Amino acid sequence: MERVEDFLKERVRLAPETTALSDSSGAHWSYAQLDKASDDLAAELKAVGVQPNDRVLLLVENCAAAVATLHAAWKIGAVIIPLNARQTEGEVARVVKHATPAAIVMTSHVSPDATAHATRMGAQEITGAFGTMHLAKGVSDPDPVLSDVAVLLYTTGTTGDPKGVMLTHSGVRFGGMASSGLRKMVPEDVVYGVLPMSHVFGLISVLVGACHTGAHVQIDARFSAQKLYDAAMGGVTIIPAVPQMHALVMQYTKEQGMERLGAPKLRYVSSGGAPLDPTWKRKAEAFYELPLQNGFGMTETSSGASATQNELGSPDISVGPVTPGTRARIDVDAPGGNGEEEGEVLVAGPHVMKGYYRNPTETAKAIDADGWLHTGDLGKIDEEGNLYILGRSKELIIHGGFNVYPPEVEAALNDHPQVIQSAVVGRTKDGDEEVLAFVQVADADRPDVEALRAFVKERLTGYKRPKHIVLATALPAAPTGKLLKHKMIETFADQLP
Fold first, then answer.
1. Tell me, what's the pLDDT at 156?
2. 396-495, which class in CATH?
3. What is the pLDDT of residues 316-345, one digit of tens each?
4. Cα–Cα distance for residue pair 454/451, rounded to 1 Å
5. Distance in angstroms between the alpha carbons of the first and the last residue of the chain
6. pTM summary value
7. 263 in helix, strand or coil?
8. At the topology level of CATH, where does 223-393 sit?
9. C-alpha to C-alpha distance for 387 and 322, rounded to whole angstroms
10. For residue 369, what are the CA distances in angstroms to 302, 322, 328, 366, 373?
């Protein structure tokens, strides 16, 4: 069986001294150095009893040592569980209880949160070619179900059954190769790596794709608009990001008195995680002076399932055709479907997850008898085979008996020149659902709410217009920058009637 770590082995054979990784802690590693660092970490893991088919939990913020930990686990034949170190003690405990890892590695040298977890767990400091981190011993418990699994990614929050997505070595390899191919990646590329490694986008599209190619990943532990700006101006060639990151760096650049980025070597910019609207896409492309490529994927599909390869100025706002080897269809009879062309997006292919670890009930709900993954996303496919994502079926708002897709309302709000980004959610009241909008603005450039209402009124029919609009200088967001819609009402409860 071909395995993910074979990509690293091939890079060491072909070009061992090529730069693989650099990070904000000062690491600057060649592929040979990454290989040595992962060997040293593999020895530390073996010393505490980690065996093939064991689980290794990585409490991580982005750094070169974390990448070495991935390869160390794979070299042993263990499964890696990347989990953001900023998770709470309770959230970490739930994953530990469910996954029963044989070891827990913490990137304490770049993360105060990882250090706090290490202290709480009584972890031991370890050093080697990887630098200095912390390691806590668990109990070895090899599980043959995981013999072909490379990664377990947990997708649940603080409630509900844990859902550890089992991604196989073949699926992760497929995702990395697809990402490299879509971006036409070459060894000379410098890829900006701020998307969290605990997320499928950062892990597979960025890290595995770059390793397959032999490119250099420039890693940042945490996102900020200034860091992304500095990286672009400093020579990165590829920026994979989510729409919220693009919105914030555009606002940052505007505050510096510039309308365009003007990055000297940047050649590829992509957006994932949310639909695009034509006006915002044109604005972003004018800012980067490059086409903004869009794509669709999820944890359960080992990242990307479709992507565009458009020219600058293309009006296409789809997420493109499916990637080679992927199949997609629309279930128009699923909840949220219209019985005609719109419905739930179903995906099949070699990159679809094996299932949810130790959770056959949820696996059966997600993957049907014919192997189709039910994504929970609503979409449609046009005559040319391009997929359009309309929104999440669980986020669909039914107001007055009409379907309201939050991305459409967000697009209308985001068109306003004083709006940075927005999040639209539904709230049940008096037997109906209200449309609520939470809008991020700058303190020095705050729009009038009534003027914003009038702006939206020109773009949306009555039932789609927000009942209440809340203005804020920041909105709840995940480490990826993706807005946390489920926290909007709670966060701004005092501003809602």
1. 57
2. alpha beta
3. 989 999 999 999 999 999 988 888 899 999
4. 5
5. 59
6. 0.87
7. coil
8. Rossmann fold (3.40.50)
9. 8
10. 20, 22, 16, 10, 10
* Helical (H) or strand (E) element with 450: helix 449-457
User: Are the folds of 5-170 and 396-495 the same?
Assistant: no
In whole angstroms, give the CA distance from residue 145 to residue 391: 34
C-alpha distances (whole Å) from 465 to each of 177, 373, 456 are 42, 33, 7
**Average pLDDT score over residue span 347-368:** 95
Alpha-carbon distance of 471 to 440, in angstroms, equals 6
Pair 322, 387: CB distance under 8 Å? yes
- Measured from the Cβ of residue 43, the count of other Cβ atoms closer than 10 Å reads 14
**79-88, 106-115, 160-169 — which is least confidently predicted?**
160-169
Q: Yes or no: is domain 5-170 CATH 3.40.50.980?
A: yes
Give the number of other Cβ atoms within 10 Å of residue 265's Cβ.
Answer: 14
| Phi-psi group of 35: left, alpha or beta (phi > 0 → left; psi -120 to 50 → alpha; rest → beta) | alpha
What are the domain boundaries of the chain?
Answer: 5-170, 223-393, 396-495
